[in-house]
Predict the structure.
Amino acid sequence: MPPEPVMSREAVSAFLDEVFPQIHHGGPGPVVEAVGPLSATMRLPYHERHLRPGGTISGPAMMGLADVALYVAVLASLGPVPLAVTTNLSFNFMRKPARRDLIGEARLMKLGRQLAVGEVLIRSEGEDDLVCHATGTYAIPPR
Amino acid sequence: MPPEPVMSREAVSAFLDEVFPQIHHGGPGPVVEAVGPLSATMRLPYHERHLRPGGTISGPAMMGLADVALYVAVLASLGPVPLAVTTNLSFNFMRKPARRDLIGEARLMKLGRQLAVGEVLIRSEGEDDLVCHATGTYAIPPR
Amino acid sequence: MPPEPVMSREAVSAFLDEVFPQIHHGGPGPVVEAVGPLSATMRLPYHERHLRPGGTISGPAMMGLADVALYVAVLASLGPVPLAVTTNLSFNFMRKPARRDLIGEARLMKLGRQLAVGEVLIRSEGEDDLVCHATGTYAIPPR
Amino acid sequence: MPPEPVMSREAVSAFLDEVFPQIHHGGPGPVVEAVGPLSATMRLPYHERHLRPGGTISGPAMMGLADVALYVAVLASLGPVPLAVTTNLSFNFMRKPARRDLIGEARLMKLGRQLAVGEVLIRSEGEDDLVCHATGTYAIPPR
């Protein structure tokens, strides 16, 4: 059974705002909805700064959501590790997002001493179909 | 020998500004430096909106640069195809970018009837080492 | 709700043996365990031809398992499409497999007109932890 | 300028045959053609065991070639590190290989203390177009 998170949703949010203030640059950025055992759920508010013409949410906005969701899952599991760095991210874009908030659910598939590997499922709020699937690897600095 | 581009740098830039005005939302976005046979070079200006604490350029800014660079290479090769959509993007992040503009060089490895596949090499201006390597696939709508 | 498969496990197995006889070249290859709505389960028998020194199953054997598992999920959903081709595969290797059969569970996240996208979870039989996670894209020929 | 290799082609070949004897199981496997600064060239002989019906070389055979080519580039650069493990591999398949040997050219884009990242270009011998492009990451054990 995966271990319980060592940081609460509130603690992770406060840490994120401190170390990554610019995720909210130009408008609201991703928000931590929940953390759990090796997992995290983030919401990306539907906002002009994330849009493509036609009102659809842009690829880079989804990629940023996936990146931070994995980072939050690592943080919640290990405690504050500001120096963890993304080494690999891979995305499949499957459908056009609706004109709604996006929900990203991150789950770590491995949390090793040096590497964390996880996936993120991104959906438009209230829908079942995946908009985007991401996998990523974080390098964890020696502690 | 790969075919000559069918759109000039100026034509591609004007088309991008028209269909993706929001890449410059909140500050200067990626700029087309050059187009060539199955290739394109883009510059991401060093600007506060792309930064992480410590002054380094963020992962999502690099991912956006790679995405648009591949799209520009497709545009330059095929002419205006506003509906081409990214289906897959994969990134390896290798070094921390310097406090300088980033240069992304996109090259299409395949330009088929339905799919275009390419890679993007991202470096800090004036440096040899790669900061990030990306590969991506675009689905091309039937014409 | 995903559609029911249009081919049975037996029909898919017979089709595979006919079009890909060489997956059993040199010893037993992957076996179809089950097909379901947009999904398939394959077993790779533990056999000398798939091993690395130390008795662990090789990376290429796992990659072959993932590739065929996605193909079987496409077949079961669409019926015999011998010309579907893999365009992209991406793997994260997370743990050393045990000295046991491997089980690969494929699930299609998108089954479009031109592209099918899915993921494969690979585990050693009887274990919960993932050995490998794969995502892949198949191009489906016009019908 | 990248460092000169620390192992010769002959030394790497002998090491490979010793630690991975099974790459030649069932017929000739990949052969080291050359090693260079952060690079390696491998040849996969055209042989029945690597074929798909129609005489084309199979995806798993290409994936195995890419994996070993990156490993050889790591070996040639670092000396014998039998415990280096693949953590990530990503492939774009672009064309059907010809009925000929395949040539895989691996180049390391990063050789760090913990991670090596590289790409592999795979072509049918004597052709310019890429059959497959791969990127991969190796975790290097502490020395």
Remarks:
- The helical segments of chain A are 9-19, 59-78.
- The interface with chain C takes residues 90, 92, 94-95, 109-110, 117, 119, 129-130, 133, 135, 137 of chain A (CB under 8 Å).
